[in-house]
Design a protein that fits this description.
Elements lengths: L16 H13 L13 H13 L5 H4 L15 H5 L8 E6 L5 E4 H8 L2 E8 L4 E11 H8 L7 E6 L19 E5 H5 L4 E6 L2 E2 L9 E3 L12 E7 L6 H6 L22 E4 L5 E3 L7 H4 L13
Parallel strand pairs: 1-10, 4-11
Antiparallel strand pairs: 1-2, 3-4, 4-7, 5-6, 5-10, 7-8, 7-9, 11-12
This protein binds ligand MTE.
Ligand MTE binds next to loops.
């Protein structure tokens, strides 16, 4: 699978929110003399940055950390950050297990050290009809899976969030079957766009965004991006996600962004970018069609929604 340079910018080129905010004026001026102090981008970096900017404006950090879906804490988006504030994310471990030859439990610091982080700017489209553009820091999930050495029977990857009702007030309520579980087909998990994220805008993830590590699958609806992961399991059979358990007619296993397949209760044709009042058209596979469409060749996307 070829990577698209349009969406990928190495962290060495962009580390600060101010750089994003300044880039608009930089691009308008189209000259290095006007570059904001601290940007220190090379010529190649400028081209990559300008391209990414031309595609999408990143959402403000303040919005990314204050408008959240994290039902373990609250069903109210703007209440999540305060309620999640004290989540203990260190010590933390992530176990990689199931149908692998080399199961391993990673301490979060080891995980970060072993795999490092690069910065990638991805669109995130929530199934509810809003979207953001987020500069994630993370690494490709494929690297972790390769290290675990999957057995040949492994066909899917199952992810599980921390279960800790003491820390997570939502888990004391039975509106969902906790813990939060998500899944991907193995080839989706191995796609080079699929990340495990540990940061945003060069800062460590905050609890409300899924600290210390969460999944990012940019061509799928945001709910596939499971937060605060403690277990990654290679399995033979398709996992049943929390959302499939909750309402299988509304939330399927695939959850690929698709403007042509409506949610039973609303249209998916358009979306509102947080920080912008207008609605824009939703793109097939959230704009990542070139990178991912091959995986779904011949599938009826209305049936496998
Ligand atoms: N992960 C867990 N564990 N619990 C959740 O409630 N919400 C999902 C997803 N991951 C959720 C989760 C949904 S519905 C969305 S849209 C995204 O997280 C939101 O991510 P953000 O708050 O970082 O924007």
């Amino acid at each position: 699978m070829k990577r698209s340079a349009r969406y990928i910018i190495p962290s060495s080129q962009i580390t600060q929110e101010s750089a994003y905010l300044n880039r608009r004026s930089f691009i308008k001026s189209a000259g290095l003399a006007m570059a904001a102090p601290g940007m220190l981008l090379g010529a190649a970096g400028e081209v990559a940055a300008a391209r990414a900017r031309a595609v999408d404006d990143p959402t403000l950090y303040a919005d990314i950390i204050s408008y959240n879906n994290y039902y373990e804490f609250s069903q109210e988006k703007t209440a999540v950050a305060a309620l999640a504030h004290d989540l203990v994310t260190d010590p933390w471990s992530v176990s990689v297990e199931g149908l692998v030859k080399k199961p391993r439990k990673y301490d979060i610091d080891d995980l970060k050290k072993s795999f490092g982080a690069e910065q990638r700017i991805y669109r995130m489209r929530c199934v509810e009809g809003w979207s953001m553009v987020i500069p994630w820091d993370g690494f490709e999930l494929s690297r972790l899976i390769t290290e675990a050495d999957p057995q040949s029977e492994a066909k899917y990857v199952k992810f599980t969030t921390l279960l800790d009702p003491k820390q997570m007030p939502g888990q004391r309520k039975s509106y969902f079957s906790w813990p939060y579980v998500e899944g991907l087909r193995l080839d989706e998990a191995m796609n080079s766009l699929t990340l495990l994220a540990t940061g945003i805008y060069g800062k460590p993830l905050l609890p409300q965004n899924g600290a210390p590590v969460r999944l990012v699958v940019p061509w799928k609806y945001g709910f596939k991006g499971i937060k605060s992961i403690v277990k990654i399991e290679l399995v033979a059979r398709r996992p049943v996600s929390l959302w499939m358990n909750t309402s299988s007619a509304e939330y399927g296993f695939y959850a690929n962004v698709n403007p042509n397949v409506d949610h039973p209760r609303w249209s998916q044709r358009t979306e509102r970018r947080i920080g912008d009042l207008r609605r824009v058209r939703t793109m097939m596979f959230n704009g990542y069609e070139k990178e991912v469409a091959d995986m779904y060749k011949g599938m009826d996307l209305a049936r496998y929604f």
